[in-house]
Write a structure and sequence with these properties.
Blueprint: E1 2-4, E2 8-14, H1 20-28, H2 34-42, E3 51-57, E4 62-66, E5 75-79, E6 82-86, H3 93-104, H4 109-122, E7 133-138, E8 150-156, H5 162-167
Antiparallel strand pairs: 1-2, 2-3, 3-4, 5-6, 7-8
Length: 168
Amino acid sequence: PWGEPGTGAIATQAQTNALFGPDGLEILRTGTTAEETIDILLGDDSQREVRQLGIVDADGNSASFTGNETIDWAGSITGPGYAIQGNILTGPEVVEEMERAYLEENGSIGNRLLAALLAGDAAGGDSRGRQSAALVVFREDGGYQGCSDLLVDIRVADSDDPLGDLQR
């Protein structure tokens, strides 16, 4: 995931193109919407059908793209201020439950994101099982001593209980 206060947030997965993060933020800085940014990033991408991309712009507009050749189940849900997507999931109920939890949770953005991850996992999550999880939150001057915009960056890799570790 990539983000920048006053600009937006971007997540790319499936056959990830890591340049979509920094390139997408650069495009968003020009004032394009989330949907326009997706169109630009995927415009001449010969591998677009194996990619998944979600963007929320500074105005809260959101957009998501799931290519036709991503591994089932793959899809997304978007709404004001959020874009939820996943691939190799047990089914659409995963993103539906993530949306429900995100919208129902009160509290910080970090708490809302964690609630969404936990709900998605409880609904079936990744059909391959659980191995990793991440929670990243950006806020202007939110980093240690205000030296960066990275407020929260917790990543768990290669764990039997990644969401438990993330919660801890």
